[in-house]
Amino acid sequence: MSLATDPNLRSQVRRLAPRLILDQTRRGMPKSSGISKRRIRPAMDGGDIDLDRSMDRVLSARAEGRSARLDELLVSDWSKPGLALCLVIDRSGSMNGARLTTAAVAAAACASLAPRENAVITFASQIDVLKPMNERRSASETVASILTLRGHGTTSLAAALEQARSQLIKAEARRKVTLLLSDCRATEEVGVASAASNLQELIILAPGDDLEAVEQLARVSGAAWGAIESVLDVPRLLNRLMADERV
Q: 53 or 86, which is more confident?
């Protein structure tokens, strides 16, 4: 309906659909994208002084007749492991309602899991960076852009995975995950396995009725994967696949 001939209807659908998709997706995602761990850092970085870990340094400084310097003290806080996500959407085939919605939900899930560092790439014969890693943009804008996609062309999967790696290099997070939404049937298969293996971590979400190429790519690259039977599967699959931090 985002392409409805009635301009008023088309405008309302494009305005409301991203909000609905984001709301429904966030309900299915975990409340936390990682387990908090205690982090010990130099006091120069700011934070609450960790007296237990700093006491020996304070006493040593007093024995020398001086006050402990800031660079001798330690602070501690709780932090979550950093996560950066790059969503790679295959639009080489027909982008019907179900495929569009699945792609939009995946983008919403990425924005929920990695709100600070996420990117979206679409590919067919050409690679388009829909949302660069270092660009600040609302999740609703990204979802709205995905809902206007149309499928066409051949499948340049290797180039798309290489672009995902380029985007993730720009991220500061320790864990860098490429989320591939595709049946993995590349028109030109040269370099696909190598490009996939060069990624820090690859997760594939694939159509439930076409898994042969997906299983093969996952086997040679070590990727995790899951089959999508319904758009409602996306948050559940990501919950499960993202929980296995293998790096």
A: 86
Phi-psi region of 47 (alpha: psi -120 to 50; beta: other; left: phi over 0): left
Instruction: Label residue 57 exposed, middle or buried (CB < 10 Å: 0-12, 13-18, 19+).
Output: middle
Q: Tens of pLDDT along 82-105?
A: 899 999 999 987 677 788 888 988
Enter the tokens of residue 204.
């594939």
